Amino acid sequence: MEDSLLLYTDNPELKEFDAVVTRTGPKFVVLDRTGFYPEGGGQPSDTGKLIVNGDEVRVIKVMKRGKQVFHYLSQDVAIGEKVHGFIDWDTRFRYMQLHSGEHLLTGLFEALGSGPKVFSSFSQLDFKPSDIDEEMVETVRKRFNEVIELDVPVEVYYTSREDLDVGDDERKQSFLVKIPNNVETLRMVRIGAFAETFCMGTHVKSTGDIGKLKVLRMESKKKRKKIVYFELEDI
Q1: What 8-state DSSP symbol labels residue 206?
Q2: Alpha-carbon distances of 2 from 62, 67, 182, rounded to whole Å
Q3: Distance between CA 132 and CA 109 in Å, rounded?
Q4: Are 99 and 44 in contact (CB under 8 A)?
Q5: Domains of the chain, with CATH numbers?
Q6: I need a labelling partner for 214 at 20 to 30 A (CA). Which of 125, 183, 197, 235 fits?
Q7: pLDDT digit string (tens) for the chain, length 235 residues
Q8: 122: left (phi over 0), alpha (psi -120 to 50) or beta
């Protein structure tokens, strides 16, 4: 079966696109190309709609299985149909803001010696073992908002395993080990000198599009685990 062409990887601001249905099942389709981001890497899937012969079919959820992207729909669509896809842009853009914000926060905390990050979402970062304290949280809060004002570019680039230098970064080393050996080209996301990591998700063009922090607070747990909660302001 043919792979789905992932339009969002190089054009995350694509809001609509044309495609052809190459596989069908009970209320799902696979398209030859898609702008819908599938759930993964901590980022929820896109939602939206497909226009099929003038009729609107809702895209409820999107998942990637192997190299194909499955779009779960409000009704069945026949194989071979030509469709026009629309992404729910307000939702997608919010995910992009939160995803880029999570990357930036992680980089700022790690630069101050936070310890390894063991979990992240669009509202939470977990570090263990960690010595994050309130002073570090306030330092990161101030620096984060400064980087937002600087409007630093968020860059996506590709590199090979051989050319990638993870140095002594244990988190990146462990992440690299989990990537199948047959994946030779890695997609990297870099926010100036503040954050850089592997990522297949969608991101904003620059930090000015992220928005400043509305909430940043920390809770201490047992065994030197620290949980950082965050929210972004609306822009």
Answers
A1: B
A2: 17, 8, 18
A3: 8
A4: no
A5: 5-87 (2.40.30.130), 92-232 (3.30.980.10)
A6: 197
A7: 678 999 999 999 999 999 999 999 999 999 999 999 999 888 999 999 999 999 999 999 999 998 899 999 999 999 999 999 999 999 999 999 999 999 999 999 999 999 989 999 999 999 999 999 999 999 999 999 999 999 999 999 999 887 877 777 766 776 677 677 777 888 999 999 999 988 999 999 999 999 999 999 999 999 999 999 999 999 8
A8: alpha
Pull the structure tokens for residue 224.
């030197």
Helix (H) or strand (E) holding 104: helix 89-111
Q: What is the pTM of this model?
A: 0.92
Tokens of 37: 């981001």
